[in-house]
Write a structure and sequence with these properties.
The two termini are 16 Å apart. This protein has a single domain, classed as lambda repressor-like DNA-binding domains (434 Repressor (Amino-terminal Domain)), CATH 1.10.260.40. The longest helix has 15 residues. 59% of the residues lie in helices and 0% in strands. The protein is mainly alpha-helical and 73 residues long. It contains four helices and no strands.
């Protein structure tokens, strides 16, 4: 799995864990909802600045958005 996909998966997972809609998270992180959607689908790369904003809005360390979690078989 590419890092972009890992980030997209973690971003979507943390947003859902926090019970936020894309609109809510986009507002809190000061990004557009369409940009957030592109990040969650892995169709766009995020800068470190954006990763930091999203992490703060989700109340997680930025590293949590980049961690690779292996799937148990």
């Amino acid at each position: 799995m590419e890092l972009r996909e890992v980030f997209a998966t973690n971003l979507r997972r943390w947003r859902q864990v926090r019970g936020l809609s894309q609109d809510d998270l986009a507002y809190e992180a000061e990004v557009s909802r369409s940009y957030l959607s592109q990040l969650e689908t892995g169709s766009h790369d995020a800068s470190l600045k954006i990763i930091d904003r999203l992490a703060k809005a989700l109340a997680v360390e930025p590293a949590e958005l980049l961690k690779y979690h292996s799937r148990k078989r």
